[in-house]
């Protein structure tokens, strides 16, 4: 049975995804049309969440920003979890020089100040596809998870079913693919779920400081950055994207926590048996 936290988080996240991807098809306004006769208007029947400083509909812009933030968060999570699984499993299973070499690379990335590196790279990112931003964020997000995967792989390689497969002639890649990765699936799923929230926050932070998604495209970070200048005088311009960002991260966090508790409970039952 799924944990209530997982169900609650999934329901919230599905609602947010529905607003982001189905909303633009149903809502009469788009995110780029400027109405100079309705600049910085408060929420009304015409513009449900108000308008921004150039007269764009804020709900339409937020839906567009949600799309971009969710896509970036999901892409970063999948990419960083895949890299963490590959690097951690290879290091943990083979050990020796492979382990030392890969962990040296991990340590080098861990000591680099992520924000400073991205800031230095920002001229390269300017004008490029947002997919390059995904690669840059993922490049620094897999390191800690790879160490956890490595420890788990080192534990699994001593288990009987792994030794039995090796005695029967299975080579390393086959053992990793058929025995180690499947047994680490719950750990990787939780890591991937948590990474979605971390990536959304990272993208929002980078875009807020001008290093991420750039106009005319929008994300939650760019909307928050633009709205922060009017946070006191026209609060809806700032609070609407902030509310969606917090709700998205909270939903992902609930899913991750629910999965963790479910897996811990199943592990406790297995240990008792």
UniProtKB/TrEMBL annotation:
- Its domain of life reads Bacteria
Q: Which keywords does this chain's UniProt record carry?
A: Cell inner membrane, Cell membrane, Membrane, Peptide transport, Protein transport, Transmembrane, Transmembrane helix, Transport
Question: Does the keyword field hold Cell inner membrane?
Answer: yes
TM ranges = 7-27, 70-94, 101-124, 130-149, 187-211, 231-255
Keyword check for Nucleus: no
What Gene Ontology biological process does one annotation of this record name? protein transport
Q: Where is the ABC transmembrane type-1 domain?
A: 66-256
Pfam families xref list: BPD_transp_1, OppC_N
UniProt-annotated location(s): Cell inner membrane; Cell membrane
A GO cellular-component term linked to this record: plasma membrane
What SUPFAM superfamilies has UniProt attached to this entry? Answer: MetI-like
Question: According to its record, how does it sit in the membrane?
Answer: Multi-pass membrane protein
Sequence similarity? Belongs to the binding-protein-dependent transport system permease family. OppBC subfamily.
Could you tell me which PANTHER family the record lists for this protein? OLIGOPEPTIDE TRANSPORT SYSTEM PERMEASE PROTEIN APPC (PTHR43386), OLIGOPEPTIDE TRANSPORT SYSTEM PERMEASE PROTEIN OPPC (PTHR43386:SF2)
What name appears for this protein in its UniProt entry? Oligopeptide transport system permease protein OppC
From which organism does this entry originate? Hoyosella subflava (strain DSM 45089 / JCM 17490 / NBRC 109087 / DQS3-9A1)
């Amino acid at each position: 049975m799924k944990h209530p936290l997982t169900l609650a988080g999934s329901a919230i996240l599905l609602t947010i995804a529905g607003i982001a991807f189905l909303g633009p098809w149903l809502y009469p306004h788009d995110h780029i049309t400027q109405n100079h006769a309705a600049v910085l208007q408060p929420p009304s029947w015409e513009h449900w969440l108000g308008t921004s400083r150039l007269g764009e509909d804020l709900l339409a812009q937020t839906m567009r920003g949600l799309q971009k933030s969710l896509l970036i968060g999901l892409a970063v999570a999948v990419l960083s979890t895949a890299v963490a699984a590959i690097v951690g499993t290879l290091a943990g299973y083979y050990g020796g020089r492979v382990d030392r070499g890969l962990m040296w690379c991990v340590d080098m990335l861990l000591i680099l100040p992520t924000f400073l590196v991205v800031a230095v790279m920002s001229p390269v990112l300017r004008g490029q596809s947002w997919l390059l931003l995904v690669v840059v964020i993922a490049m620094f997000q897999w390191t800690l998870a790879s160490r956890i995967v490595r420890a788990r792989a080192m534990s699994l390689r001593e288990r009987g079913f792994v030794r039995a497969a090796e005695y029967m002639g299975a080579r390393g890649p086959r053992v990793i693919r058929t025995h180690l990765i499947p047994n680490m699936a719950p750990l990787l799923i939780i890591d991937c779920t948590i990474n979605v929230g971390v990536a959304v926050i990272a993208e929002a932070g980078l875009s807020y400081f001008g290093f991420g998604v750039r106009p005319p495209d929008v994300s939650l970070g760019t909307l928050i950055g633009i709205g922060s200048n009017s946070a006191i005088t026209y609060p809806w311009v700032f609070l609407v994207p902030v509310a969606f960002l917090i709700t998205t991260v909270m939903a992902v966090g609930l899913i991750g926590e629910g999965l963790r508790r479910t897996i811990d409970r199943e592990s406790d039952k297995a240990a008792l048996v």
